[in-house]
């Protein structure tokens, strides 16, 4: 919403600069996102009157104009525009004046002097039209020499509002913003004049009837007619207003409709009355397949989801979105039908999105419009049309109002307001804040009095006796009440129901039974005045105008009070709370420990996208029936590359490797601990297990001046995994040769915990590596996190520090190549028993010096007894058992 | 004999002074003090001296000379050893400006570092860290948070849907509901901080991401006020940005809170005087907050007449970007080592 400061001042009298106003509105939650000057840089340009013109002797397309620029001065100005006529009022940029980006001087054009130039809309930056000169409307109060910036309303500031949903509805009009400003300074809103001078002996009901088939989508439709108008350009002041709001002046009728919408917030539509067939307006859903040409010339095919305004023969408008070509107001139009209606926000938004027809009107319906304002807006438009386009206003409105909107009655416990905000305001101060926003604040006793009198008689007459009914009276005052007798009757029924409901809430708040008389007696019994009611303190009965549809319950009022008082007035207190033991969940703790362990091992943590393209599973070469290919797909993806939820971390991690390698960063050691998403048969929601992924490539340590480079390999990767398991204290982990098609068949293992496979590690298969466009070998691992957590020791197990010396023995052997080392180690440990403290493999050799099909392994064994020094005699049988066990496995001992 | 002895002494001392290597000292010890030395031979003639007095006097002189030679040898030996050590140390001199042997340094992701820091601040104040699922039902993501179908807030948070009922959560607020219903189950106080990954349907550029993170806080108890929200947020801002930072609440709107407030911190770049980052206002917008809406309390199984609560939420990416001057939100997910290894 763009708010012109000058225009705003028409509705409220304040003594604040635009800057101060912007700051204070923002502090109240009406956020002024930008405050910009309305003047794009026009300075010294004046109104000129063309007094004579002739063709340039040396150029067919140029005109030589003599222009009266005021003060008796006539300048020769040349123009290439073809729309200038003698007598026209035009913007004259005289020598020395400024346009956005340039300063005027005297310039020769084909041999003749031009003293400055005449300006187009585009040159003044007030519009897009760059072909013709901006011709000002011929008005009495426009004189040559007047400052064009003043005339065009450029000496102004524009407050660009960024409205949150709750203020969006009531602040999308000048009057609505003025209400906020008035509340801010304690002033009054100067409401626009809505008096109409109706033509005698006319009745709009003779000209048009309204039928609403869909009260759920159109709660109100008000129509007025103005006859005998003359279509033409709007006066300058009106054009300036429309421009200030960022819209384009079209003609007097359209401009007035837009002006009233901007001023009062009620979108209007104008029809050429003569084009409405059958003197009938029907609001209905379109028929499936119905065709309709909107005024942009597009033929649209409609269906039941679209709400249309139709006449006796067919659609004449997409309700609240766009009118039709056939019923559009044209230069020949003489009779105008004004539509001032209320359409459902959701349906309206869908239609405008579906046909890609965003408009100021549709934007307002989407955010919510106050149906109580329909009549006033129609009146305002009718009167302005009569004044500015001639014609006469046909007496009366047609007002179809099947679903009336009534003011809310909301109860406020003052104690609670202070209790939620931490403010310490008196009930009187709270009441004053609410009143400043146009609400009426009463007492419980007032509500009791209303209830005691019972439901009012709502006969033909709308102006019934209101005396002795304070809340009822307020409900009539805060927002306009329909004058149509039928509409009023439905309104009154709904309003009384609202009042009674408030009475019931009050009775229950005050601890009284909600029995006969809807608690009126009980409320009265509790005393008059602002009633004390236990913990609730005093209770205010607040009647809320219908334009504040965002206020429905007590906390809504509390927010209004807090923002009127100012959030900066809320004291700053440290929360006084029972002390609690804070902390992470166990998963959170372990996850953090794992991250720290991996970073401590020199790996860099990465964070990759949860959304991936499903082709990643093809790049990995996963078989068609691989469970990782069962993924969740987005119904409305934004990009193809982000269209499914990942079922494994590996693709993201490989992408990171490729990204870096492509940027000459070839030495990588990275990890990620994050969630994957796996659909579960028969369940609405997927599993989101936490996974760990690792990748190593290039050198782990680069070549240094005194250290060799250390290339990544399978065992470096395995070491990282073992380090992580050790840091976490995971028990019962084992590695086993595996068959994973993504990995090198000879260089991969499954990680098992408690005998169950939880993941894999290995060298990426060369074909996968190639498909992923990775130049070097990559070592990757991915395994589930939860099994690690389940297998952790709760804490480290302490053994006393040894007091007796250890004895070391080395044993070297030749074994068959296919005998896995872990079997040898297991045999050593078993045979060594309790005395064997440490087993460390320190040499592995295969090659020329050993027989083919064999390899040589050497272990360093450490023996120790906890309670004595081991003697050779004692150790020998044990160590021999170890040697025998190795021989039993086929080892050929070499020492 | 006396002359003989004195001559021997002078000869030995002169020779010792001239020795320049440690090996020769041992030789000399043998030559001047050994059994076959000249000194031993001369002193062997003591018995042939005429008087006891003479024998005694010459014996004493002989001992004196032995001692003198021993001392001279020891002193020279120590001198030579010191010189040798000095020479060795001089030879072992290195260029200490050569680089040290590299130890591979790992890095925690900067975003998680920031999230951990936020967690620590709140853990110290007795908050629990709660996490929950990212693929969520419409009820937990919207309905329970007072965002019924058709509510404009659903448009503002363009969602990524799996089906009509299931979507990627658009905020971490689902954790609030799940914690209330599944963990707290009506108990008070509730004091939680909820970090996590969230998703929006958005174009990706330097300041917008489809996947980002949030940290939300929730407190529920009797007598919770906006004033204590201000207090907690101030603690958090100071913990993150330093002791001089202040906060400001501005009225705003969120469907799940009422009253609602936008929270700003005083500009960490200009201290509130106004600069380019804060667009001259002296304040930087950080996130949203407010008193938990009664409908949300009810959805979580709490009676808004009995307890009240507040909640806040903001993006740790934004905090990290402010803290370090990071210019592009995409850096967090591209995995560029030149970015990640800086933290
Ligand atoms: Zn600043």
Model description:
- The complex is a heterodimer of chains A (895) and B (343).
- In chain A, the strands form twelve sheets. Chain A has a seven-stranded mixed beta sheet, with helices on both faces. In chain A, strands 13, 15, 16, 23, 24 and 25 form a six-stranded mixed beta sheet that branches.
- Chain A has six domains: 53 residues, Phenylalanyl-tRNA Synthetase, Chain B, domain 1, CATH 3.30.56; 106 residues, Beta Barrel (OB fold (Dihydrolipoamide Acetyltransferase, E2P)), CATH 2.40.50.140; 203 residues, Phenylalanyl-trna Synthetase, Chain B, domain 3 (Phenylalanyl-tRNA Synthetase, Chain B, domain 3), CATH 3.50.40.10; 162 residues, 2-Layer Sandwich (Phenylalanyl-tRNA Synthetase, Chain B, domain 1), CATH 3.30.56; 205 residues, 2-Layer Sandwich (BirA Bifunctional Protein, domain 2), CATH 3.30.930.10; 87 residues, 2-Layer Sandwich (Alpha-Beta Plaits), CATH 3.30.70.380.
- The radius of gyration of chain A is 42 Å and the shape is elongated.
- With 895 residues, chain A is an alpha+beta fold.
- In chain A, 29% of the residues lie in helices and 25% in strands.
- The longest helix of chain A is centred in the middle third of the chain and has 25 residues.
- Chain B has 343 residues and is of the alpha+beta class.
- Chain B has two domains: 90 residues, no CATH class; 231 residues, BirA Bifunctional Protein, domain 2, CATH 3.30.930.
- Chain B contains 13 helices and nine strands.
- Chain B has a seven-stranded mixed beta sheet, with helices on both faces.
- The mean pLDDT of chain B is 91.
- The structure holds zinc ion.
- Zinc ion (ZN) binds next to loops of chain B.
- The site of zinc ion (ZN) has 8 residues of chain B, from loops.
């Amino acid at each position: 919403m763009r708010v012109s400061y000058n225009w705003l001042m028409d509705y409220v009298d304040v003594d604040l600069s635009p800057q101060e106003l912007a700051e204070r509105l923002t502090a109240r939650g009406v956020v002024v996102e930008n405050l910009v000057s309305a003047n794009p840089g026009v300075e010294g340009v004046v109104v000129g009157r063309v007094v004579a013109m002739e063709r340039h002797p040396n150029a067919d397309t140029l005109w030589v104009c003599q222009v009266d620029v005021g003060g008796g001065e006539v300048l020769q100005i040349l123009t290439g525009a073809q729309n200038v006529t003698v007598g026209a009022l035009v913007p004259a940029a005289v020598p020395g004046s400024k346009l956005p980006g340039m300063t005027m001087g005297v310039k020769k054009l084909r041999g003749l002097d031009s003293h400055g130039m005449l300006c187009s809309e585009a040159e003044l930056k007030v519009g897009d039209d760059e072909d013709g000169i901006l011709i000002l409307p011929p008005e009495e109060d426009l004189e040559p020499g007047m400052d064009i910036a003043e005339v065009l309303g450029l000496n102004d500031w524009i407050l660009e509002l960024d409205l949150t949903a709750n203020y969006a509805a009531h602040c999308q009009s000048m009057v609505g913003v003025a209400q906020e400003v008035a509340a801010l300074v304690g002033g009054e809103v100067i409401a626009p004049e809505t008096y109409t001078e109706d033509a005698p002996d006319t009745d709009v009901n003779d000209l048009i009837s309204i039928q609403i088939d869909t009260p759920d989508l159109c709660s109100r439709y008000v129509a007025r007619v103005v006859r005998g108008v003359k279509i033409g350009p709007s006066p300058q002041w009106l054009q300036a207003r429309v421009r200030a709001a960022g819209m384009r002046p079209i003609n007097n009728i359209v401009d007035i409709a837009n002006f009233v919408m901007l001023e009062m917030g009620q979108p209007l539509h104008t029809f050429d009355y003569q084009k409405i067939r059958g003197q009938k307006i029907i609001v209905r859903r379109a028929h499936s397949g119905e065709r309709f040409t909107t005024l942009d010339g597009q033929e649209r095919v409609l269906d039941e989801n679209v709400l249309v305004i139709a006449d006796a023969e067919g659609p004449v408008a997409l309700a609240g979105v766009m009118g039709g070509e056939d019923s559009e107001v044209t230069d020949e139009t003489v009779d105008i039908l004004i539509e001032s209606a209320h359409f459902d926000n959701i349906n309206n938004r869908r239609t405008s999105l579906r046909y890609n027809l965003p408009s100021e009107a549709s934007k307002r319906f989407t955010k919510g419009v106050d149906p109580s304002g329909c009549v006033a807006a129609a009146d305002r438009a009718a009167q302005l049309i009569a004044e500015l386009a001639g014609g006469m206003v046909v007496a009366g409105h047609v007002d179809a109002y099947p679903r009336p909107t009534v003011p809310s009655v909301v109860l406020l416990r003052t104690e609670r307001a202070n209790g939620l905000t931490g403010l310490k305001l008196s009930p009187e101060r709270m009441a004053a804040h609410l009143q400043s926003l146009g609400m009426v604040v009463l007492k419980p006793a007032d509500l009791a009095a209303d209830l005691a009198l019972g439901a009012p008689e709502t006969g033909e007459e709308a102006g019934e006796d209101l005396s002795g009914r304070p809340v009822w009276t307020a409900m009539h005052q805060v927002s306009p009440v329909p004058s149509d007798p039928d509409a009023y009757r439905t309104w009154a029924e709904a309003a009384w129901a609202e009042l009674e409901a408030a009475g019931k809430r009050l009775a229950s708040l005050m601890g009284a039974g909600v029995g006969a008389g809807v608690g009126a007696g009980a409320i009265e019994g509790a005393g008059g005045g602002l009633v004390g009611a236990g913990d609730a303190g005093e209770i205010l009965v607040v009647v809320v105008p219908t334009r504040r549809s965002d206020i429905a319950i007590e906390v809504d009022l509390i927010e209004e009070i807090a923002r009127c008082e100012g959030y900066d007035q809320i004291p700053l207190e440290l929360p006084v709370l029972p002390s609690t033991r804070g902390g992470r969940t166990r998963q959170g703790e372990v996850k953090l420990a794992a991250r720290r362990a991996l970073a401590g091992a020199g790996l860099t943590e990465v964070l990759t996208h949860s959304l991936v393209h499903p082709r990643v599973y093809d790049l990995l070469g996963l078989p068609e029936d691989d469970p990782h290919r069962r993924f969740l797909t987005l119904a409305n993806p934004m990009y193809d590359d982000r269209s499914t939820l990942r079922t494994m971390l590996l693709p993201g991690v490989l992408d990171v490797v490729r990204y870096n390698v492509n940027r000459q960063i070839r030495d990588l050691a990275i990890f990620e601990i994050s969630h994957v998403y796996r659909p579960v048969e028969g369940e609405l929601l997927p599993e989101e297990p936490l996974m760990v992924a690792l990748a190593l490539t290039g050198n782990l340590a680069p070549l240094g001046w005194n250290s060799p480079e250390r290339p990544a390999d399978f065992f470096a990767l395995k070491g990282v995994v073992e380090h992580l398991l050790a840091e976490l204290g995971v028990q019962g982990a084992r590695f086993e040769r595996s068959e994973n098609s993504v990995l090198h068949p000879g260089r991969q293992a499954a990680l098992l915990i408690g005998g169950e496979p939880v993941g894999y590690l290995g060298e990426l298969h060369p074909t996968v590596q190639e498909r992923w466009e990775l130049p070097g070998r990559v070592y990757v691992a991915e395994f589930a996190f939860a099994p690690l957590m389940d297998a952790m020791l709760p804490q480290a197990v302490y053994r006393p520090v040894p007091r007796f010396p250890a004895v070391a023995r080395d044993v070297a052997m030749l074994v068959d190549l296919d005998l896995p080392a872990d079997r040898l180690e297991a045999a050593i440990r078993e045979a060594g028993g309790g005395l064997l403290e440490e087993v460390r493999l320190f040499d592995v050799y295969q090659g020329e010096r050993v027989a083919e099909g064999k390899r040589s392994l050497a272990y360093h064994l450490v023996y120790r007894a906890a309670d004595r020094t081991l003697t050779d005699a004692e150790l020998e049988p044990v160590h021999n058992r170890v040697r025998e066990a190795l021989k039993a496995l086929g080892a050929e001992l070499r020492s | 004999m006396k002359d003989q002895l004195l001559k021997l002494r002078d000869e030995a001392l002169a020779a010792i002074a001239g020795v320049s290597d440690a090996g020769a000292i041992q030789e000399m010890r043998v030559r001047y003090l050994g059994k076959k030395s000249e000194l031993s031979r001369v002193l062997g003639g003591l018995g042939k001296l005429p008087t006891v007095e003479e024998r005694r006097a010459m014996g004493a002189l002989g001992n004196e000379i032995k001692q003198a030679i021993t001392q001279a040898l020891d002193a020279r030996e120590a001198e030579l050893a010191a010189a040798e050590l000095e020479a060795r140390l001089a030879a072992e001199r290195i260029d200490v400006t050569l680089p040290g042997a590299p130890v591979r340094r790992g890095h925690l992701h900067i975003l998680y570092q920031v999230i951990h820091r936020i967690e620590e601040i709140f853990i110290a104040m007795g908050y629990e860290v709660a996490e929950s699922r990212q693929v969520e039902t419409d009820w937990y993501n919207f309905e329970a948070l007072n965002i019924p179908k058709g509510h404009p807030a659903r448009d503002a948070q363009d969602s990524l849907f799996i089906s009509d009922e299931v979507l990627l959560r658009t905020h971490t607020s689902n954790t609030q509901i799940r914690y209330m219903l599944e963990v707290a189950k009506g108990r008070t106080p509730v004091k939680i901080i909820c970090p996590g990954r969230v998703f929006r349907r958005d174009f990706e550029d330097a300041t917008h991401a489809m996947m980002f993170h949030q940290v939300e806080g929730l407190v529920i108890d009797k007598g919770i006020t906006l004033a204590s929200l201000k207090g907690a947020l101030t603690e958090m801002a100071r913990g993150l940005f330093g002791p001089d930072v202040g906060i400001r609440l501005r009225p705003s709107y969120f469907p799940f809170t009422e009253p609602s407030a936008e929270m700003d911190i005083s500009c960490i770049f200009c201290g509130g005087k106004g600069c380019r980052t804060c667009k001259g206002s002296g304040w930087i917008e950080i996130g949203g907050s407010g008193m938990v809406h009664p409908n949300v309390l009810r959805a979580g199984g709490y009676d808004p007449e009995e307890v009240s609560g507040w909640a806040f939420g903001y993006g740790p990416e934004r905090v990290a970007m402010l803290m370090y001057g990071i210019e592009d939100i995409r850096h967090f997910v591209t995995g560029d080592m030149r970015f990640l290894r800086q933290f």
